[in-house]
Amino acid sequence: MLSVLVPLLAGCLATSPEEEGGPVLLVPDVGQGHGVALVEGDRAVVVDAGPQEQNALERALEAQGVKEIQLLVLTHPDLDHYGGLDSLRLPLESLLHGAMSSQDSFLSIPRCSTYPQGCRRALPFQEYPVLDDVTLRILGPADTSLAPETNANSLVVEFRRGGRSLLVVSGDLDTNGELALLGRLDPTEVVQLGHHGSKASSHLLWLGAMMPRYVLVQAGVGNPYGHPDAEALARAEAVGATVLRPLGKCLRIGFAPRAQVLD
Q1: Which one of 19, 150, 152, 253 is at 20 to 30 Å from 78 when CA atoms are compared?
Q2: In which band, very low, low, confident or very high, does the pLDDT at 42 lie, cut at 50, 70 and 90?
Q3: Is it the case that residue 84 has pLDDT exceeding 60?
Q4: End-to-end alpha carbon distance in the chain
């Protein structure tokens, strides 16, 4: 199956009968940043919050009927991953993060103290029950001794349901970090291309170990970095994945009975 870069313009609408029995993944166009949400019922787990000066993720959550963000996972302390925190107006229970420097403003006591369960650091191999019947697994990084500001220290998170891997998100993890985690990967239905589809992420062995049906790209239109890189897209094509990129609005992916675009 050849990969196709599919720009999806449909918005994240209310639930439909197709979605019954499983979570729904929301992938809005946040511009040059990362921010997705897994929703079940009226609760969500959010991975990254997008850059500043956008509220696409909040609008997608509200349109889906979400009333509470159970957990927000921050993969990486870059502004294009956490800048959109201030736009999330829904109640937020807890924030999970990787290695951070003392200079990271979002870890200030006033912000974390507003979350009922505060801010917690995640370490590899930890598992968290989330939503109704989903498990969040921390797969990496493999080396937790790296300086907090490096891309190689991005959290790698996997969502599983009933022994089945639904989604893997790796923040800005680079190729070296990906190769160090190959032994922890299972076949997965959806993968978000690392670092917005950078040439230095999404190694062929990394993608091949997961064999996703869909690969997601979140990158700003006309961004100065050339994301997504043609070589990264070609690697997704080589493993038979369909590449999806939300442009303008939002896409939704359901997982019952298998990953499928709902809109």
Answers
A1: 253
A2: very high
A3: yes
A4: 21
Reported as a single tens digit per residue, the pLDDT across 236-256 is 999 999 999 999 889 999 998
Residue with tokens 């369960």: 117
Q: What is the pLDDT of residues 205-229, one digit of tens each?
A: 999 999 999 999 999 999 999 999 9
**What are 115's two structure tokens?**
């979350």
- Domains of the chain, CATH where assigned: 5-261 (3.60.15.10)
pLDDT in tens, 186-196: 999 999 999 99
The secondary structure of the chain, three-state, reads: CCCCEEEECCCCCCCCHHHCCCCEEEEECCCCCCCEEEEECCEEEEECCCCCCCCHHHHHHHHCCCCEEEEEEECCCCHHHHHHHHHCCCCECCEEECCCCCCCHHHCHHHHCCCCCCEEECCCCCEEEECCCEEEEEEECCCCCCCCCCHHHCCEEEEEECCEEEEEECCCCCHHHHHCCHHHCCCEEEEECHHHHCCCCCCHHHHHHHCCCEEECCCCCCCCCCCCCHHHHHHHHHCCCEEEEECCCEEEEECCCCCEECC
Phi and psi torsions of 152, nearest 5°: -65, -15
Region 48-57: what's the mean pLDDT? 93
Burial string for 23-54 (b: 16+ CB within 10 Å, else e) reads bbbbbbbbbbbbbbbbbbeebbbbbbbbbeeb
Largest Cα–Cα separation, the chain = 50
